[in-house]
Amino acid sequence: LAYLYRQLGVATRAGSKGLCGCLTLLQAWIYEYFRLFRPSQLPQSPDAPRASSWISPRLPGGDEARRRLARYRQLLDELSADDVTCTQYGRDGHTDIPRSLYTGLIRFSDIVEGYDPARCLRQFGYRQIIPRAMTVPHEQYRPASGSSYIVFWDPWVNQLWDNVAARRLDLDFASRPCVQPSDIVEEYVDWFLTRSHPRITHPTDGEPQPRPLLVHQVSYDFLLLFQI
Question: Aminotransferase-like plant mobile domain: from which residue to which, for each copy (predicted)?
């Protein structure tokens, strides 16, 4: 997971043209959370790996692949709160895997990346809050090309993963159970918009189309309507 996080960071560089890491994990994560992109699924025993149930489609190439990519981008821009499966492992999935509430840094070899479940509390059935600031590296170099993507951390980060019990997020202290999967604190919208791109498709690409509300707008309007 640490290696995949690092490679996702490298892939966001303007000059990057590919992606390394455990892409099976990334694909399975997408299928679990976003029902619009799910392929067919086979029945399997509860003990089998979850990712093995998905039947990966045979994707076309050339012009058809480019049209499919444009369609995927449009679907992402049009996502509503109902299109996201927030609690795909159940509202108490963290009780089966307590380590999923670990907060801190994860490491593989010389690669260290931040891991903070408070940034996605809705996957545990809790209302999303503004998470605390992530731990920053001691030194970092992230050129546009991605070929020299280097991050240095202080030596003390090696001790975090060895003490998982002390680094476990207390859900009830951090937030409260949500009523709707899209529940958020009111201030979260402003925080999110200053740190993320709300849309993928460039506004000048193709013919102008009516755009539905974004996921965060649906949530925000819901909160205002019921004054939660």
Answer: 1-192
Q: pLDDT tens digits, residue range 123-166?
A: 999 999 999 888 888 888 877 777 777 888 887 777 777 777 77
d(CA 134, CA 171): 18
Helix (H) or strand (E) holding 70: helix 62-77
Query: Which residues does 141 contact at the CB level (< 8 Å), separation at least 6?
Result: 148, 149, 150, 151
Q: What are the pLDDT digits (tens) for 59-84?
A: 777 888 888 888 888 888 888 888 88
Q: CA gyration radius for the chain?
A: 19
Residue among 48, 143, 38 nearest 85 (CA): 38
> Whole-prediction pTM value?
0.77
Phi-psi group of 220: left, alpha or beta (phi > 0 → left; psi -120 to 50 → alpha; rest → beta): alpha
Q: CA-based diameter of the chain, in Å?
A: 54
**What would the two tokens of residue 70 be?**
């444009």
